[in-house]
Write a structure and sequence with these properties.
The protein is of the alpha/beta class. 32% of the residues lie in helices and 20% in strands.
């Protein structure tokens, strides 16, 4: 083959490589951007989010509220489980393992900081064990590495990471990985900044598109049983690029969140009622000691 022929062949190969690189850099993003956003199923919240929901290919943060020392942040875990279940359902409806389909799988990779998760509790919020892949990391560095690697796998729907603190550069890497693949990234700080105050002071600045704080709220009465009711939480959208921050009182109905009207006592108009329950037996006349001695 002549030297000119080899030159033409080399130029064609370079052109092919350039097209492949462009497809890697832009192709996946184009696919997932055409998909509907991840909604919470609450019109009051979804209406304030850009595009009517959370960006699939983006990084989001959930902070735990003040729940007392030693509490793992059950409300924040429940909120994250609901988001993961909704995202997995979207992925499963599009099929998995298609490669480059923008997070088309129905599986959730959960990077744990603690000993494990309570399966029946997650299932109660829609996230079944068949959807979960659990990874336990010894520290934040290992969990962040696992998150970044998981976000490269387009067969996953979402990657959840229980982390403490991370810097802006680390969060940007996660955001870029999610944006490229279309797999949703969720940073979960179950106990807020330090496990006690439940704020976002110690979490730091990040590249996350949204930041939520989820605090427990008193449950409502169910079927006349006092003290036994549907789980409730307060969801606060602290920061949202292109959206409107706000606060909502939510109640779990077994399939999704219902927004409660706080202006009507926070429970959809039902006024709180008192229930006459005896807490101690009525006092008897006389001393119990002499009678006890007589019996003995």
């Amino acid at each position: 083959m002549s030297k000119g022929g080899r030159g033409r062949t080399g130029a064609a190969q370079i052109a092919v490589l350039r097209r492949r690189i462009a497809a890697i850099e832009q192709g996946a993003v184009r696919v997932w951007q055409g998909a509907p956003p991840l909604t919470l199923g609450v019109p009051g919240i979804d209406g304030g989010l850009p595009g009517g929901g959370l960006a699939r290919g983006g990084l989001h943060e959930v902070l735990g509220g003040a729940e007392g020392r030693g509490n793992r942040g059950g409300a924040a875990l429940a909120f994250a489980a609901v988001l993961a279940a909704r995202r997995a359902a979207l992925g499963a409806s599009r099929g998995s393992g298609n490669g480059g389909n923008g997070g088309g799988g129905g599986r959730v990779l959960w990077c744990l900081a603690g000993p494990g998760l309570y399966g029946p509790g997650l299932a109660a919020f829609g996230l079944g064990a068949e959807r979960l892949i659990l990874v336990r990391g010894r520290d934040d560095r290992e969990r962040l590495w696992a998150m970044e690697e998981g976000l490269k796998c387009t067969a996953l729907a979402m990657v959840v990471g229980e982390v403490g603190r991370l810097d802006l550069g680390q969060s940007r890497r996660l955001q870029l990985a999610a944006e490229t693949s279309g797999v949703t990234a969720l940073l979960l700080h179950p106990r807020g900044d330090d496990g006690d105050r439940g704020g976002d002071v110690g979490v730091g600045v990040s590249a996350a598109l949204t930041r939520w704080r989820i605090s427990p709220a008193p449950s409502t009465e169910t079927q006349g049983y006092t003290g036994i009711g549907a789980a409730c939480c307060r969801a606060e959208l602290l920061r949202c690029k292109g959206g409107r921050p706000g606060s909502w009182l939510l109640r779990w109905n077994g399939e999704g969140w219902d927004e409660r009207d706080e202006r009507k006592h926070g429970y959809g108009g039902e006024k709180p009622e008192t229930h006459p329950l005896p807490v101690a037996a009525a006092l008897a006349h006389g001393s119990a000691v002499p009678r006890l001695a007589t019996i003995i």
